[in-house]
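Researcher: I need the complex structure. Ligand is FNR. Inputs:
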Amino acid sequence: MFSMAFAAMVPHHAAIVIGDRIMSDHKPLHFVTLLGSLRKASYHGAVVRALPTLAPDDVTIEPLGSVGDFPLYNADIQAVGFPAAVLAMGEAIAKADGVIIVTPEYNYSVPGVLKNALDWLSRLPTQPFAGKPTVIQTGSPGLVGGARAQYHLRQSLVFLDATVMNKPEVMISQIMTKVDAATGQLTDEATRTFISTQLTAFASFARR
Ligand code: FNR
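Model: Output:
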């Protein structure tokens, strides 16, 4: 008979066969999304909203709070106490199995609001990105898909000691053609499929 003790001994990438039933022993995963745009009609916001529907069955995805709720980083504010929004986001990241950062590129780099959020989070006594599986998705109206921002972001994530997945890389070119402006939905099938592939890879990466 199947028992919890037996389940605990099975490597987590194996399937368990009981009689004629195959049970996935994949640990359910919970990912959180960090959005680098404050714009109401943000194309990257549309990507974030699509992610839960593109994830593998055993993965749930939930948005973190807005980086717009953070004040500009100031060590004097920190000395008085971390803002509640920073503490809440730090806790949500710490609890999550992985973080998906979705952001536009500003001036060939990371938008200030996102960098500001990373700066705050990096000062928390228990730094939540340390060892945290993390993956990046960028987009842009041009053809390069936010690649330059993506590599600047990776550089900051090295200092935060995040465990960033290398590939597949999601860089969405001409993002305004992939989102239906009227409904705010990510409608482009090829983009949805590719993001799905990345999320499946990220789930395996987070389970390692
Ligand atoms: C941009 N944009 C932009 N695009 C790009 O591909 N490379 C870049 O370096 C920049 N730089 C840049 C700077 C600033 C200050 C703004 C406001 C915009 C264009 C940007 O990608 C575009 O506005 C996106 O639509 C922003 O993403 P959301 O807000 O739609 O998610």
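Model: Summary of the prediction. Residues 37, 39, 42-45, 104-108, 140-142, 146 surround FNR (CB under 6 Å).
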